Amino acid sequence: MHTISNPIALFKAMNRLFPCLVLLCGCIGTACAQHGEVEVDLRHIDVGSPARGALQTRGDMFFPIALPFVDDFAWPSMAHEEGPVNLKRWEPSPVRRTMTLAYQPPTVGCATLDGLNASGDPYALTPVNPAGYADTLTSRRLLLGEGYTSGDSVALSFWYQSGGIANGADAGEDSLVVEFRTSVAEGDPWRWVWSTEGIDDDTLFHPEVIHIDAPEFFHNDFQFRFRSYGSLEGNVDTWHLDYVRVDEDAMTTAPEFEEVAFVTPPTSFLTYPWTAMPWPHFEVAPSVYTATSVPTLHRSFGSTSNSQEDIGLKVQRVDVLGNVNSYAPAAGAVVNNSVQGLFGTDYVDDLQIFTDLFNPALSDSFAVFHVSLWEDEVGAANLTTQIGVPDNDSLVHVQTFRDYYAYDDGTAEKAYALEGQGGELVVRFDIQQPDTLDGVWMHFTPFFDDAVGETFTLKIRGEDPDFPGLPGEALQAQFEVQEPDYFTGEHDGFVYYAFNAPIAVDGPVFVGFVQQGEERIHVGLDKNTDTNADHLWYKFPTSPWQQSAIQGSLMIRPVLRAGKELVTDVSELGLERPRAIHVYPNPGRHEMTLDLAKAMSVSVLDMSGRLLDVMGLLAEGRHVWQAPYAGVFVVRGVDENGGVHTQRWIAKP
Questions:
Q1: Residue finishing a domain among 526, 560, 594
Q2: SS (H, E, C) 511-552
Q3: In a shared domain, residues 127 and 208
Q4: 240 by DSSP, 3-state: which?
Q5: Is the domain of 93 the same as that of 158?
Q6: What is the pLDDT of residues 1-23, one digit of tens each?
Q7: pLDDT in tens, 102-118
């Protein structure tokens, strides 16, 4: 007979069977409803104000422009975006410029065509499965009437992808079309020149070159446009466009340029799993919470290899006025050796980049930093020799420290929901310093409708003392019935929900809600980070807790006092502060830091009670312990009065 000594392993082994039982129950008959978690495509997107395509046009925006026409969507080139007119490349349209929906684009930023109109709503929801022409992206007028002929090899080149991280166009049903505007005076001036069908589960960008060689195309009102044909029901059947270019002496195959560019932006400069955390928690141990290695994805264009010397890095405090210092590593400290194709970069040995800039006299709880990255080789000194677009060789990541913890990057590529009445979901957050929990930010994503009348109650749980890592009992009853707010007036907006009363927290806390009806309540799902498997749990009234099997990070953020306002009587909240032993980060990887409020003899045991290490008599203050393997450990301390103090710590693989 085999036994499982680790309770977490036993729990996971049992729950691997549960989804099968649920599906079987749903197949037997209607008496037993099917429950589970679902990932769905977005059907509405709150675009905020102004809506896409709703910007009043300005006369100077639509003067014809000369060749070359180039847009890699790294700058605000859409008509509705804020930015100089000379950067605009397109007529007003519902098409969005996105940074996170494509998979490994040629350069950072894409134009995304989908089934959403300028207000972020579906073009149509009736009849069932409506289909037709959805988004259209039309260029500004181009001056092709003077000095150009078919012998000049003028061509339109671009890269395209079906879906990427978003819902892709279906093979055999959906298509991407390119049309050119002719010089005809009467009738429809647009002519079909190219199209392609959808590609199921497409993860590649495909190059295309279309030569402009017919006489009716060489006029000073020439335009080209992309049109998507597919579902009209929302952010579905998507197409991503990148590096669109019209110029003479064009290639006959893939458009290539001697250029190095960023492909995707970094999601965080903090250690996994955090993208944001309260500043008072971070500043206790910045070397623990600042990532020692942040990979970024780059692409080296062209037919030959292109080696980089350095990556430029600068960090600047931006949330306060006045003389705020900036930080930059020494020249050559951030090295990137690139070759042709894709490659990454590690930023190392910069543990103090945030704390070196922070001035406690300016703020005691909030801080916002801009982390600027750029490719040295194609920086300002080399713009005169740059063939492609220089803007794609630089990025600015906003690193925020406020009063909440976050796992997501602030963008919802999909929606997450539970199927079934009484479904409860909770996200585990390991609070790194004792604090007071006041409420939670949540991003709800509208689906076919805004689910008016659907309700939920907040739920805040502690950790199960018998099964570390699992949700335990509720820390405080939440009686107020809430409704999801799907339309916040801003893109990817969050809504704040306050708890009935402040909750003292230290260590693991599980924050979420219980849906009261059968209708799904959709929460934003960030697909560019992935923490659900480690932190998201769900259950139904007749089922045990299950860990999420859906990749991504749920957009839920617990809000703490974090230095804003101290609780006047902490004892009323049932929390002694500080603990005799405090361990962090929890969970962590390989290394545990423990703070001792007093001198004591410390030892470390596994969950079965077996002694693993005797650290001996340690003085008050901070100490470090290296985990021999991944697992759950118990730190045990005995003070000079014989008092015993314990803390659990989880070491992740």
A1: 560
A2: EEEEECCCCCCCEEEECCCCCHHHHEEEECCCCCCEECCCCC
A3: yes
A4: strand
A5: yes
A6: 333 333 333 333 333 333 333 33
A7: 999 988 999 999 998 88
